[in-house]
Design goal:
Layout: E1 24-28, H1 32-45, E2 50-54, E3 71-73, H2 81-101, E4 106-107, E5 111-116, H3 134-147, E6 152-156, H4 157-163, E7 172-178, E8 182-184, H5 186-199, E9 203-205, E10 210-216, E11 219-224, E12 229-232, E13 234-237, E14 254-265, E15 280-283, E16 288-290, E17 298-302, E18 308-309, H6 320-333, E19 341-353, E20 359-362, E21 369-373, H7 383-396
Parallel strand pairs: 1-2, 1-13, 2-9, 5-15, 13-21
Antiparallel strand pairs: 3-8, 4-8, 5-7, 6-7, 10-11, 11-12, 14-17, 14-18, 14-19, 15-16, 16-17, 20-21
């Protein structure tokens, strides 16, 4: 029996689908996008849609794109106004999921985006691509926050020193404090969403890799490893860097790269690193970032692509020199991290599209196969929103209007 929540859903999940053209939906991939898609299809379907979720391993396995301790949530996402609007919508959904599960998934620590003195061409990070001028990127991004009444504050060097004395890099010229941003408990969120999916009737099939799929005007055929074939009215493929295993994407549609993550144990005498003292921080120049201490460790990394790979299975441990460089760069921002010990490392991957925008599209003219990719490093916070849009696309066969600009390029 489906256990639909009694609590009123936020806007994106509040109403049943006004059109149901497909009543048997299969989602392939159990990461944040796949789980969110399955949940949205089941909740908005109100028992009228059969939803199945196939995962090659299990939700939250260590090799997955969505697996990590925490992920950034921010409203300032660049000059594209759609992403600011989506962030506001996603915020209410994450708060709802937290209340529904009884777990605190969204930590509003604030996100501090740091701008360094300009002049050195190397001082221009990947976050602002394809812009060459950080100032223009910041100004256009801030206008989106103002248009959506998102609270923020622009801090000069003196403001930063007074409010966040942890940051002592003299090259920092200004910062934008995204007040209500923060981070999500990523690993916990995956298991919470899986539990919610099962409660609303989603059929979950772990350790069930899909080897092939096809579609025609009447529906879809899915081939599982071992030879079993399954029919479905529509399929949503949410495999990120594995998308090419099932869909022959045009050459260079996705650029895959390893993204090492480093978890530090700060020195015992380090102060000001706890939640409530240290915000999530991102350098718009070096692209290095860090989180407040969580469960005894502080996560840092470099958002620039590390090593290009052709497939997620090609990942390997990063060079020692790379890890040392990232720690040194972060410690230039926050000197108290200089003598931190490495608690552990993890190598995830990013699958970026050519223009850094998500790809959310239909594979065929009838939209029997809908897919999402090119989202790594940016999409976790938008998971509930992207999932709802892909679910609606698959169920109705009609492209949501705000997905027009996310067609494959």
């Amino acid at each position: 029996m489906n256990d639909f929540p009694n609590t009123k859903h936020p806007t994106a999940w509040s109403e049943p689908f006004n059109q149901i053209s497909r009543r048997n939906i299969t989602v392939i991939g159990g990461g944040i996008i796949g789980l969110s898609t399955a949940y949205a299809a089941a909740v908005r379907g109100q028992g009228k849609i059969k939803v199945s979720l196939y995962e090659a391993d299990q939700v939250g396995h260590m090799g997955a794109a969505s697996t990590d301790m925490n992920r950034v949530f921010r409203y300032l996402n660049g000059p594209d106004p759609t992403l600011t609007i989506w962030a506001k919508e996603a915020s209410s959904l994450w708060e709802y999921i937290s209340r529904l599960s009884g777990q605190s998934l969204f930590h509003r620590t604030g996100v501090l985006l740091l701008v360094h003195k300009q002049g050195d061409p190397a001082h221009r990070g990947h976050h602002i691509w394809p812009y060459d001028d950080i100032g223009v990127w910041v100004d256009e991004s801030v206008r989106n926050l103002e248009a959506e009444d998102v609270p923020f504050q622009r801090l000069n060097r003196q403001d930063i020193t007074k409010r966040f004395p942890q940051f002592r890099d003299n090259d920092i010229e200004e910062a934008i404090l995204d007040h209500e941003a923060g981070y999500l408990e990523a690993q916990t969120a995956l298991h919470v969403l899986l539990d919610l999916c099962i409660k609303v009737g989603v059929n979950y099939y772990p350790y069930s890799p899909v080897q092939g799929l096809s579609s025609d005007a009447n529906g879809c055929l899915i081939q599982l490893k071992g030879g079993e074939e399954i029919r479905s009215d529509a399929i949503v493929v949410t495999l990120n860097g594995w998308t090419g295993d099932l869909l022959p994407l045009p050459t260079n549609t996705l650029n895959l790269a390893e993204q090492p993550i480093i978890y530090l144990s700060p020195p015992n005498d380090a102060s000001g690193l706890s939640e409530g003292e240290l915000p999530v921080f991102i350098s718009l120049d070096t692209d290095c970032y860090g989180f407040p201490v969580n469960n005894g460790v502080l996560k840092v990394g470099d958002d620039n692509p590390y090593r290009p790979i052709a497939h997620p299975n090609q990942r390997r441990e990063p060079d020692k020199t790379y890890i040392e460089r990232v720690i040194t760069t972060v410690a230039q921002l926050v000197p108290s991290l200089e003598n931190s010990q490495i608690a552990r490392t993890h190598v995830c991957f990013y699958d970026r599209s050519k223009d850094e925008r998500f790809i959310l599209d239909a594979w065929d003219n009838d939209a029997r196969i809908v897919y999402g990719c090119g989202m790594s490093g940016r999409a976790f916070k938008f998971g509930p929103i992207i999932g709802e849009r892909l679910a609606r696309f698959a169920v109705t066969g009609e492209r949501p209007s705000d997905l027009e600009s996310f067609r494959i390029r």
